[in-house]
Amino acid sequence: MTTLFEVNTKLTECLHDFGLECHPFKVGWYNERVKSGYQLEHHEDTLCFVVISSPSFFEKGFIPFVRNSTESNNQDYLDQAISSCLKTAIQSISGYDISILHDYEMRPGTRRPKVLVQTAGHVSGAVYFYQKTDVINPPWLTDQPIYGVCLHPSYIGWFALRAVIIFQKVLVPDLVYKPPKDILVDETKKIELLNRYNNSWQDWSFRDIMEPTERYSELQQKYLSTRPSERSHLIELIKRN
After folding, report:
1. Number of domains in the chain
2. Does the record's keyword annotation contain Transcription (predicted)?
3. What is the pLDDT of residues 37-50, one digit of tens each?
4. 190, 128 contact by CB (below 8 A)
5. How many Å apart are CA 78 and CA 178, to the nearest integer?
6. Is residue 199 part of a domain?
7. Cα separations (Å) of 118 from 138, 149, 152?
């Protein structure tokens, strides 16, 4: 477990500077919970980390990236900032065969994500992925689609799952599974959460189903609530200030 400890320590320290978190899991844990079309083609004991952006990422990672950026391309600045922060973190860990799967990446020729980050977050123990199946007596129709949503034990809904880092040749058979914390012990709260997320996700009320330790800043909320195609004036504002 020495390799895991060293990698986890270095990665955690570097990502923390950007307001990012990482949590380890094994490929096998993930593959057990997803359909074959979403499984990762690695040994079941392969070491992975799910990456989470905390509320402070906007100020610690995103704004500095925007102010230092001289490039202009079609990719969203937020995606660019995450990619840049992860690249910096990976460079601090040499000697490993590493691949990164971002939350927005799709498998070639399909509309399937390369990785289901909500499932990855759940099996890592970092967040709890609440789904229709978590409700014993669901109020919805059997065939009614209800999308699941993750909650963090501290940030509640004020975070995002950004990527999965795979250490392709590092096997951790002794890594102990850490179950995620179910912070909504009351079934009515689970129903309320899923209803808020499915019926009115735009008002972000699902993020406050419980009191969080931190929330997104006012500027971050404004940025994320603005369509990507209309964010240029906010980018210019950030660059000037």
Report:
1. 1
2. no
3. 999 999 999 999 99
4. no
5. 30
6. no
7. 21, 8, 11
